[in-house]
């Protein structure tokens, strides 16, 4: 039997046991090492459960559910037939340490066939989000001793030199692909909201050669972490007004505003401030408003008059997984990625950890299913 932290409903968690699954052809079972608590999991815990709103695969969280989609583990079992392969086509075997993709696509809809980001798939399945633990074989999330991976799930080999704790950041780092499209060497970058997702955007901006990096957050503790990830200017929401923040960003960017502004806050309201902080002709990346928390008033004229590009990032892309693993491995000593992980909890501590992760006392919290 495999133990798992099961979210029965918003705000209600229990630890349950499920039979060890026998993998079907093409399926894989992982022995979990770590699984991150994501901002999406915090939304689910609070009851903000509508995901991919307005798309073909809009859904509400199907409770009961085992959350956890930022995963790293060891291959425990492989179903009959050809073994899975890693990112370069090498066969994987029992005992290999891997990071699985958190989604499974249909491979047949317009968006899959057309090569669009895989989170646009019309029949997408999400580990820890769309697959209920009431459905056999139950273990579809990383907050469990075993994780069942459906056929066609992409799996990526973890570099030997990368600790498993840091490999658990791979999915978060892979969400930063908007910067690869928007940022040039020497660009100024503002990140609104420097929780774990914001920290990874700061790290990517630094590694892409940003000229000036600005971090904005309501929590002073998070701004302290941001300083270690390359932020030159730290702006607290409690100590500055929107006008003061705009003035300080312009002062740091030769009077014109930032080349790129990224909203990682998980709230829709900062999008309006992003439009103010970005320079004419610049780019705003919305990477945090994954869950629909309602509309905000935005005058389209502000986008048109400034000639802005707006990128909506609905999640990571598969092409970013292997590069993100290599980036974390190569720069693990250059940037304090380990400092972004502030807490590790066992299955019985998940409920308290979900509350803690929404305060300034924690950054990335990892669930370690094997812990007591």
Question: What labels would you give this structure?
Answer:
single chain; 372 residues; alpha/beta; 2 domains; seven-stranded mixed β-sheet; 12 helices; globular
Structural features, described:
The mean pLDDT is 96. The chain has 2 domains: 2-172 and 317-367, Quinone Oxidoreductase, Chain A, domain 1 (Alpha-Beta Complex); 176-312, NAD(P)-binding Rossmann-like Domain (Rossmann fold). Strand 12, helix 6 and strand 13 (212-217) form a beta-alpha-beta unit. It has 12 helices and 19 strands. The strands form 5 sheets. Strands 3, 6, 7, 10, 11, 18 and 19 form a 7-stranded mixed β-sheet that branches. A 6-stranded parallel β-sheet has the order 14-13-12-15-16-17, with helices on both faces. A two-stranded antiparallel sheet has the order 1-2. 49% of the residues are buried. It has helices at residues 39-46, 110-113, 164-167, 170-174, 177-182, 196-207, 220-228, 242-251, 270-277, 300-305, 321-330, 350-356, and strands at 2-9, 12-18, 28-36, 50-51, 59-60, 70-78, 97-100, 103-104, 125-126, 146-149, 155-157, 188-192, 212-217, 233-236, 258-263, 278-286, 309-312, 341-345, 364-367. By secondary structure, it is α/β, with parallel strands linked by helices.
Spatial separation of the terminal alpha carbons: 16 Å
Q: Give the uncertain stretches in residue-range form.
A: none
What's the Cα radius of gyration?
20 Å
CATH class of the largest domain: Alpha Beta
Would you tell me which CATH topology of the largest domain applies?
Answer: Quinone Oxidoreductase, Chain A, domain 1
Q: Which homologous superfamily in CATH is the superfamily of the largest domain?
A: Medium-chain alcohol dehydrogenases, catalytic domain
Q: Average the pLDDT over all residues and give the rounded result.
A: 96
The CATH architecture term of the largest domain is Alpha-Beta Complex
Give the helix/strand class.
alpha/beta
Apparent shape: globular
